[in-house]
Amino acid sequence: MKRVDNQVTKTISNLVHFLNQRGYEPGERLPSERILAERFEVTRGVIREALMSLELMRYIQRRPNSGIFMRAEDEAETSIEALVMYSNIGIPFGHDTDLQCLEVRRLLEVQAVRIACERRTDEDLAELTRIAEVAAHSTGDGSDLSKLDYDFHMQIFEATQNKVLVQLVTPFYLMSEMRRERFFRNKENFLNSHQQHLQLIDAIAARDTKAAAGLMDRHIGNVESYFGASEDAEEFAD
């Protein structure tokens, strides 16, 4: 069963890359299951499962007695699952989507840190402090620092004692992994972020909801500003 699941996951990735490279337009008909199965050298069952997954992600649409189609533009509201998938397999999504994800993350994190101030346990505080100490002594690259940043912010969500909130925010961190690695390749970004993390720990320890919310708002705002400026620079260079 595990081998089949791995085949399906790999086939989903191959399909998305294939469809992007071929430049299929919204509403355009795609090759049949048989042709796709032959192309990717998998069984019809595997290709069918992969297509079902892409349909659930609102990436394609299967029409009875008509075939498989790219979703029309007016129907193509990309799901969170699809955005996470794009990130995992290295397909970039638009700059506007990146900033919108940051905006949602900002709303969630500011509220989360308020709740964390009220509900955090001594164990939560100890874990936040431990992560910050590991980061302070880290000599890793952007990937390592990104993982520590993920751990720190997710621990704040854990400190809310609200499991639904943790589940809600996790996809936004998964889909921003590549962006965060890029952000933390810049040593100055890491140093500034680390200092802000220490200030957040102090505010959470003091249960100062107002200070913590203000710090988090500025913390996420700095990331938004960085990527906004980066995009402007890239457009100017072009």
From TrEMBL:
Q: Which Gene3D superfamilies match?
A: GntR ligand-binding domain-like, Winged helix-like DNA-binding domain superfamily/Winged helix DNA-binding domain
**Regions annotated as coiled coil:** none
Q: What is this protein called?
A: GntR family transcriptional regulator
Q: Which UniProt keywords apply?
A: DNA-binding, Transcription, Transcription regulation
Pfam families in the cross-refs? FCD, GntR
Q: Which PANTHER family match?
A: TRANSCRIPTIONAL REGULATOR, GNTR FAMILY, UXU OPERON TRANSCRIPTIONAL REGULATOR
* A GO molecular-function annotation: DNA binding
What InterPro entries does the database record attribute to this sequence? Answer: GntR_C, TF_FadR/GntR_C, Tscrpt_reg_HTH_GntR, WH-like_DNA-bd_sf, WH_DNA-bd_sf
Domain HTH gntR-type, first and last residues per copy = 5-73
The family database entries (SMART domains) matched by this protein are listed as: FCD, HTH_GNTR
Domain of life assignment: Bacteria
Q: Which organism is it from?
A: Litoreibacter roseus
Does the UniProt entry include the keyword Zinc?
Answer: no
